[in-house]
Records
---
Amino acid sequence: MSEGSRQVGMIILCIIIPPLAVFIRRGCAVVFWVNIILWILGWIPGVIHALWVILKHN
């Protein structure tokens, strides 16, 4: 699987289940728990945060 395909898959996962995408990329770190809280408060903040984590922390 190429890096581009993996990146697209992670972006799609960010949109569907943001905490799972963050967990796969960063593990059970503080950023994961922040994403869980944002996702509970609203789907859009969770998605935005997950996209930021995935695209910023390659």
---
Amino acid sequence: MEKIMIVEDEMPISQVLKAYLKKANYETVQVFRGDEVLRRFEEESPSLIILDVMLPGINGWDVLRKIREKSDCPVIMLTALSEVDDRLSGLNQGADDYIAKPFVGDEVVARTKAVLRRMGKQTLPVKSFGKLEVDLIGHRVKLGEEEIILTPRDLTLLTFFAEHPNQTFTREQLIEKVWGWEYEGSDRAVDVSIKRIRNALRGWPVSEGEIRTLRGLGYQLSVY
């Protein structure tokens, strides 16, 4: 299920957006302050962000710029400002679409689907990090000319990292996203899986990337 982050400081509007998106089978995350967005973005890894312009803490334009420094996650700007200059400003700064208030809920859902569909067509099925190639569709991993054989779980974990490079995840987040909520074993299974992946990728030059342990924070696929 694709996850949509709703960044809107007015609770009634946020709740309306959540209801419409939930009805369209999207998972939602609600954020009410601009200065909370980046932290929640790292934690949640949304598929798309609906971002209000007028926010407490940091305004939407500044949030958009910070997001674009680290991610190409699609962003739909949501604002009461309807002037053409404001619309063009958002698109020029990296927004993928623009919706002016007052909006129709069904239109927001339709635009969300359209942006995700457009971005999906642009997503390359193979993620390359130097010698390392991860085929997201064919579920294959190559290191140079050598195919790397992994267990299904390890392959799923590596694929997840490849889809979210340079983002940090705790053990609990990885258990949820890779093992699933029904998993009842120890979260140390993550450590064991990562150890096997590292061993399998021992020929991958550190200058190109590595699976890093960030003490007290979690793991990330760091690529350079």
---
Amino acid sequence: MKVKRILATAVAATLAASVFASCGKTDSSNGEKVKELVDGKELTVIRALADLTPHSELIEYVEPKLNEKGYTVKIVSTGADATWNEKTQNGEVDFNFMQHQPALDEWNEINNGKLVNIGDIHVEPIGAYSEKYTSADEVPDGATIVIPNDATNEYRALRILEQQGWIKLGETETIRASVDDIEEYIKPIEITELDSIQINSHRTEFDVYINNTNKVIEAGLDATKYLFREGEDSPYANIIVTTPEKADDPGLKALVELLQSEDTAKFIIEKYNGAVIPVTKISG
């Protein structure tokens, strides 16, 4: 089966100002605690790198309660790029919130990193969408499908195509895969690999597009209208990542506790209408 590869130009990450109104001292990367005045209260600053949706929105939601505990989060950037783990490792920020455990494990292995996960927060199931069809059964033979070209998300995309019964992948012990690992095309399809940032803007050129939930939401698209997607038991929960030295930091522990609360879980369910799934289950 024909496979297309498109080399997309990387889109530069956009640095964003903190989503929280605050004033006072600016932060530094020398490891010292920094204080800022927020609504007249002196709070300890926690520096962060967090994706825009839903990550920074979840932090913004818990910010008032975090303020009550004496802390405030200053988000340095909401435009994820390949430097975020390095910046977390070298102490430029206190934590990042944009990845799942398999991606962190891979980064640590490649870069001799020591970063750790201090809390699973939510799952963004990767899904298959279409501007032309409303169900997977409608997708014809010979359909064109675009998938992310980064190793982890390409693996996830190929796995849901396999679960749908459209392809069969060869055995792999890693979370990395490409179209070269497809053993059989059970359904005749044509797959194109493209940078996930580019997929939404090119989605109408294909019969089916597969992308991350946060990318779909950020583009203003309805992430609940999928043809098929990962299940709620996906191992790709988004996590709070920091250094071992900061793993027991009381401010970070307070943040994780709030993000994992039932109150935040209810907020996730209501705001994202099932497109984003909280790790915390609601009792009752």
